[in-house]
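Appendix C reproduces, verbatim, an entry submitted by the partner laboratory led by Prof. M.T., so that reviewers can inspect both the input and the predicted structure.
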Amino acid sequence: MGVWTRIQEFFEPQPGWPLKTLNQFKRQRQIQALWIGILAFFLPIVLFFGNQSSACFRDSISHSYYIPFWGDVFVATTCSVGLFLLFYRGQSCPERALALAGGFFAIMVALNPTNGTGCEEMIAQSRIFHLDPSDDTLASAYPYKTTTGKIHLWSAILLFIVLAIFNLFVFTATDKTSKLQTNPKNHNKVIRNWIYRICGGLMIANLIALAVGFGFKSCDAFHPDDGLFQPGLFCSDDHRFESLSWDRNNLTFYFEWLGLALFGIAWFVKGRGGGFLLTDEFPNQIISKPWWWPVKLGCRIQGSE
């Protein structure tokens, strides 16, 4: 037998490896939801520390696009969330369509930079340009009122709306074909629904707060018309929580952080934390032994949805 044939036999399909049961499919779906939640929850935390290494703390998570190295982390992680959503099958055709829309919007957010530099009263190094006050090409590097910026803005708005719909309507739905979910003693389903509704409601409130902040005048060190650095021109207001102070306090970043954290928590719960949190198999136990626990210890969950 030749080496080529041996290598080919090594990669032949193995009996029992493909998904055959509803229980296996459910676990795969939960793992997908788990990773979506983990990426969304930890992205703003990583970018917060990335901003600490930058010359300025950017006004929003989207402005992290411009930070050297960390901009690539933002794009890669957001695209990963988008890809997970694109391949998330869900439990119905409408849920699948909603996931496809969310995945598309997430990728559009990642690939289309937001408006402005996100910096006030200082020159900050960028992964696109090393800023120079005499450079009159910065307006194209940091777009204002361009098609790219508009795509980013509306994609972000629609993405948060899609994710709120997931929390409020999709995750709270009951699978009537499942004996575990229709069990009246399944307190874990009730707890999960409360978590989803709280996260969804707060995400809507968060969007309203961001809309209020968006109505304030932009506090940016670069003029929106010519892109030239003009320190102090737009950031001379010292009154707290008024228009210019919104960007100075980076409130958009922190509100976006809250929104992504709520998104991550909901999807983490949807993924049952990897098989041990608020599962239907143990309806009265918030934390139980996961399905992937070694069989020899007698702890693997045998229930099916």
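Residues 39 and 81 are 7 Å apart (CA to CA). Additional entries are available on request from the coordinating office.
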